[in-house]
Amino acid sequence: MSSTNQAFGNNGRGDSDPSPAQTRKSMGLDDPYEHAPPKPDGDPWSILLKPKLETDKIQCDAWKDEVQNLLIFAGLFSAVVTAFVIESYKFLKPDPNDTIIRLLSQIANGPNATSTSPLSAGSSTTIQAASFAPVPSSVRINVFWFLSLILSLTTVLVGTIALQWLREHQSYPIFSPKESLAILHMRTQSLKAWYVPQIFAGLPLLLQGALILFLAGLIDFTLPLGAKVAAPVALTVGLILLFLFCTTISPAFQPLLLLSGRFSRASVPTP
Questions:
Q1: At what angle do helices 196-222 and 136-169 cross, to 10 degrees?
Q2: How far is residue 81's CA from residue 86's CA, in Å, rounded to a whole number?
Q3: What residue ranges do the domains of the chain occupy?
Q4: Which of 89, 175, 191, 265 is the most buried (most CB within 10 A)?
Q5: 237-265 pLDDT, tens per residue?
């Protein structure tokens, strides 16, 4: 028994067994750099910059595609609205053909009309032009369509400027990887500070507002043509606006419905 205690000591461990410190030292665990990961090849700043540039490129490409599609639609839409405006603005001023017809009628009425001096004829024409007042529906139609054209052209202007911002944002001509990383961080923070993502998100809203104004003016334009023309146009426009409301505005009410318990837990899909 005494020999056993001498062999294992007070704690029952043999004297020949190494201590934990000796074990760590023999395995090289005391050296923090013994099992460190290998140093990557190349410039560390380039390795750090590459994934950030890829993420930024994905976001900028998405913005570019969206803006370019909006520019195409806004250009075509502006051309359509301009064609309607060219015809509708004529209703806001007197028609010179009506004045000519009126003068010819006065001449054809008899010798009293032919003896009228050019001065008096010009005075009567001026009075008739001054007393001209456009129909209220014509005023409303032109207001709708002019505002629609302005919003559409504003979308084109802001979209073009935004594409220039993105082009300058992604340019790193002669900078080192370290400087490019710092500039990328600065430009990313500047985009957020100047609400550039919100500007890109607002471009479709401008174009949608222009479309709504144009459709409203189109309904007002067809009202004098009778119910057979105005009713189908109004019904079609109503369905379009209903679809626009359901797909654009109604998702904003989803959090309220979730908070009110409208959707049960069973109806919410789970992974």
A1: 160
A2: 9
A3: 43-93+134-224, 94-133
A4: 191
A5: 999 999 988 887 777 777 777 777 654 55
